[in-house]
Specification:
Rossmann fold; Gyrase A, domain 2; alpha/beta; RNA-binding; globular; 4-stranded antiparallel β-sheet; 5-stranded parallel β-sheet; about 15% strand; single chain
RNA sequence: GCCCCUGUAGUUCAAUGGAUAGAGCAAGAGUUUCCUAAACUCUAGAUAUAGGUUCGAAUCCUGUCAGGGGCACCA
């Protein structure tokens, strides 16, 4: 990746300049390399001279000039030019020879382009959706589904062994409540058609057992099917009841007891989570003998880290569980796996109907199902819609406008670029791109397109590090834009055979990357539209 | 009351402390004898508010206002 090359060049240049005593000794600050917003500021840019200026208390502009000219020399095989700008930025402009060379790399790598090794084959699990099995998945769950699925895909691409998991909370009070609802007795709370269906189907009289049966049906006949409809393939479905039936939860509690982290108060057993930064201690066994959700969750994570040997676990939770983060993190630390768990909170999807805000609630029956959304706008548009938003966005969703908006979803813009390429390729089955012709690519639109292509691995790397998945659709749009502009400016099929061969190479590489990025997002890449 | 998240264009959202704050949709104007016009080009339009830190703040800190979510021996 060119960004790594620039990084190393900067480091090397500073060290040389220090050795030559042109710069005095100092610890090198963090080297940040970014994509400038304006093209006149180059393809990559760094503010390192501004930082050094601060440390040395010298003029940043002077440092930038000294460093810049050294980088120009050392990086001549990458850069057309290196410029220094205003307060002390150093701007890098990639040479067309370098871009042409990189294009050939993409063509050689094919589908493997963008496959990184930064994960070093470490095992990671992403757990997402994990909605209670008390009803169908909702629109809010679709957000978690898109986010988690794509994050796991990205980690895979970055070189982790990434797995996807759904934790089924089929134990505890909500199962009892579900049972009562199914039996339609005095303590019923959930309502809806699916409850009517379960009521007819389940003959069990004991409310808890009825609830367990109902949960199983909900998972098998509703949740799994909906996830499937969205193209999510889980590696593992873990049952909370399963954990309780084995002795795993008991063993987990025993372990905490041995460490002196469990005490009794008012008939219940408490875990001293406050010892690990939690604001209060948490109950793990209630006075009625039932274990709490946290007891099961700590056990679950022991299973993930010790039995399944995950080096890292990432949980995608709804913002309503923000208050539980500290408790679980304390538990994970207590069992000796500090730092291996990341929890990402997704802010809520607020449902609007016309102008009115609706609180989504299974109990109130005021929710829109994920199925309904998928049937109405399709998986591709649904995924893209949610992926574009960062985890912290409180997003507003208007089902009333969903259909209309989905027809204008940018996902089609990207798919259209792919279809256009396929359309050209269908016409030229006999002609192939040629390595020697690639040097003919020098039109600004051609070079701009290559620049977008080579960013792809960098986008993967950044996203695998900070989990900001909205970067993927963002880049896909930028890439499609560059392609559509190229399409306007440069005809692929012309009388000039050499140029045709060169441009075929370019669109083939573009096809590879677009298909790659769409597949990362779990979105189809149609050949015709 | 305490804790978490948010406030950016008419609207839905972007923007690792950087340079002239970007897109889509909506609004207005244009582009096709030529590989798919689901495209391209142009116009208009925004950092809630008051301070502070910094060479530089949408971004960091404090206050105010507004919104979402928590504060269980529910999960």
């Amino acid at each position: 990746m060119i960004r790594d090359e620039i990084f190393n060049l900067i480091k090397k240049s500073i060290k040389i300049l220090q050795k030559e005593e042109i710069f005095s000794k100092f610890g090198i600050p963090e080297i940040k390399i970014k994509y400038p917003k304006e093209k006149i500021h180059g393809d990559y840019s760094t503010n390192i001279a501004l930082q050094i200026g601060k440390i040395l208390k010298k003029k940043s502009m002077e440092i930038a000039k000294t460093l810049g000219s050294r980088l120009q020399v050392l990086g001549s095989r990458f850069f057309g030019k290196v410029e220094v700008a205003k307060p002390g930025f150093i701007n890098f402009f990639l040479s067309k020879e370098y871009l042409q060379k990189e294009l050939l790399e993409i063509l050689q790598s094919g589908e493997k382009f963008g496959q990184l090794k930064i994960g070093k084959n470490k095992k990671v699990q992403v757990e997402f959706i994990s909605a209670n099995p008390t009803g169908p998945l909702t629109v809010g769950n679709a957000r978690g589904g898109a986010f988690g699925d794509v994050l796991a895909n990205v980690l895979q691409k970055a070189g982790f062994k990434a797995e996807k998991a759904y934790y089924i909370n089929d134990y505890g009070m909500q199962i009892l409540t579900l049972g009562h609802s199914v039996l339609k007795d005095g303590e019923a709370k959930y309502k809806g058609k699916y409850i009517d269906y379960l009521n007819e189907k389940i003959k069990e009289k004991d409310p808890y057992k009825a609830g367990e049966k109902a949960a199983k049906i909900i998972i098998d006949e509703m949740i799994k099917k909906t996830a499937d409809k969205m193209g999510i393939k889980y590696d593992e479905w873990i049952s909370e009841t399963g954990l309780h039936q084995s002795s795993a939860v008991e063993e987990g509690l025993e372990l905490l007891k041995k460490k002196g982290l469990i005490y009794e108060k008012e008939g219940a057993l408490w875990f001293k989570s406050s010892k690990f930064g939690d604001e209060r201690d948490r109950v793990v066994v209630k006075k009625d003998g039932w274990k709490t959700y946290l007891a099961g969750d700590i056990t679950l994570h022991r299973y993930k880290f010790e039995k399944k040997k995950f080096d890292k676990v990432i949980n995608i939770w709804g913002a309503d569980h923000a208050g539980d983060v500290a408790g679980l993190q304390a538990g994970v630390e207590a069992i000796g796996h500090k730092g291996k768990l990341d929890i990402i909170l997704l802010q809520f999807v607020t449902l609007f109907e016309k102008r009115k805000k609706l609180r989504m609630s299974k109990r109130m029956g005021t929710f829109v199902t994920m199925d309904e959304l998928l049937d109405k706008v399709g998986s591709d548009a649904t995924r893209f819609f949610f992926l574009q938003r960062s985890a912290n966005t409180h997003l507003n969703f208007n089902l009333f406008l969903a259909k209309e908006q989905s027809e204008k979803n940018p996902v089609y813009y990207i798919q259209y670029a792919h279809a256009r390429i396929c359309s050209i390729l269908r016409k030229v089955s006999s002609i192939k791109y040629q390595v020697s012709s690639i040097k003919l690519l020098k039109h600004p639109s051609e070079l701009e397109l290559i620049k977008q292509l080579i960013r792809f691995p960098e986008i993967i790397e950044d996203t695998a590090k900070d989990y900001q998945v909205q970067r993927i659709p963002q880049h896909a749009i930028d890439l499609a834009t560059s392609f559509h502009q190229f399409y306007r400016d440069c005809r692929v099929l012309t009388e000039d055979k050499e140029l045709t061969r060169a441009r075929l190479g370019l669109i083939l590489a573009t096809k590879i990357v677009i298909k790659n990025t769409l597949s990362l997002m779990g979105i189809s890449a149609p050949e015709k539209m």
